[in-house]
């Protein structure tokens, strides 16, 4: 599941662990996806209620995984693997839309593995911070024999350069923090203190006092194909500070 903490104007979304090995990997099944979407909806409502206040969001996790992707064990549990897989793919798409349309800067503090849909979840943020010594970014689909949902293709196409995309999506390359920085995917790779660096970055961004609606529309404009694929509408917003 997940929890939300608010420190000043910084929202901290944490994917939490329990004694279930699957959930310790923060695998994205319909229950977890719905829980995250509910949390994001509440965060967005609070931000919208205070349009003259600047906010930021950090997403982090407990345990050694950021997210190990879709919950394939859950998909196999009822004997309806393909139906359940499509259910997860379809329910995850609006969660990506939630992040792309969120009216504040977003930071993924990646303290462990981010694989497949977990990688896509991290990539839906504006900034990605990773540890150098723990965790990889990995798209496993080519290795396990699955194609990508079209919104994955568009997300990576608009956010990741061609050569890096080829290595990640067509060769299944496992990317550590330093290499992620070189490939232009990760903003910073740190020895430790990823979450603390995320807090510092969030504080720096909040000081800009940006209008959240303007920020969200600029983000959507930067990724027009992704916005279209996700069904997000775009509009002109003027909240002049001149």
Automatic annotation (TrEMBL):
Q: In what pathway does it function?
A: Lipid metabolism; fatty acid beta-oxidation
Check the record and name the Gene3D superfamilies matching this protein: 2-enoyl-CoA Hydratase, Chain A, domain 1
Q: Tell me the InterPro entries matching this sequence.
A: ClpP/crotonase-like_dom_sf (IPR029045), Enoyl-CoA_hydra/iso (IPR001753)
Q: Which GO terms describe its cellular component?
A: peroxisome
Q: Which UniProt keywords apply?
A: Isomerase, Lipid metabolism
- BP term (GO), one: fatty acid beta-oxidation
EC assignment: the record states 5.3.3.8
Q: Name one GO molecular function term.
A: delta(3)-delta(2)-enoyl-CoA isomerase activity
Catalytic activity from the UniProt record: a (3Z)-enoyl-CoA = a 4-saturated (2E)-enoyl-CoA; a (3E)-enoyl-CoA = a 4-saturated (2E)-enoyl-CoA
- Which CDD domains does this one have? crotonase-like
UniProt lists the family membership as follows: Belongs to the enoyl-CoA hydratase/isomerase family.
PANTHER family named in the record: ENOYL-COA HYDRATASE-RELATED, ENOYL-COA HYDRATASE_ISOMERASE FAMILY PROTEIN
Write down what this protein is called.
Delta(3)-Delta(2)-enoyl-CoA isomerase
Annotated source species: Spinacia oleracea (Spinach)
């Amino acid at each position: 599941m997940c929890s939300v903490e608010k420190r000043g104007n910084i929202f901290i979304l944490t994917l939490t662990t329990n004694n279930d090995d699957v959930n310790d990997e923060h695998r994205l099944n319909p229950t977890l996806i719905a829980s995250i979407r509910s949390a994001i909806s509440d965060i967005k409502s609070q931000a919208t209620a205070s349009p003259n206040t600047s906010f930021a969001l950090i997403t982090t996790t407990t345990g050694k995984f950021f997210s190990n992707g879709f919950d394939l064990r859950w998909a196999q549990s009822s004997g309806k693997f393909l139906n359940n897989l499509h259910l997860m793919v379809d329910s995850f798409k609006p969660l990506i839309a939630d992040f792309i349309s969120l009216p504040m800067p977003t930071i993924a503090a990646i303290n462990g593995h981010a694989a497949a849909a977990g990688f896509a979840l991290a990539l839906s943020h504006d900034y990605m911070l990773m540890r150098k010594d723990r965790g990889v970014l990995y798209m496993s689909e080519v290795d396990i024999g699955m194609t990508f949902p079209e919104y994955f293709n568009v997300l990576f196409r608009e956010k990741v350069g061609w050569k890096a995309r080829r290595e990640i999506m067509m060769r299944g390359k496992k990317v550590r923090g330093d290499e992620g920085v070189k490939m232009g995917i990760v903003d910073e790779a740190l020895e430790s203190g990823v979450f603390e660096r995320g807090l510092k970055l969030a504080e720096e961004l909040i000081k800009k006092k940006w209008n959240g609606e303007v920020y969200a529309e600029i983000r959507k404009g930067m990724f027009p194909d992704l916005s279209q694929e996700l069904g997000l509408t775009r509009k002109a917003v003027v909240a002049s500070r001149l």
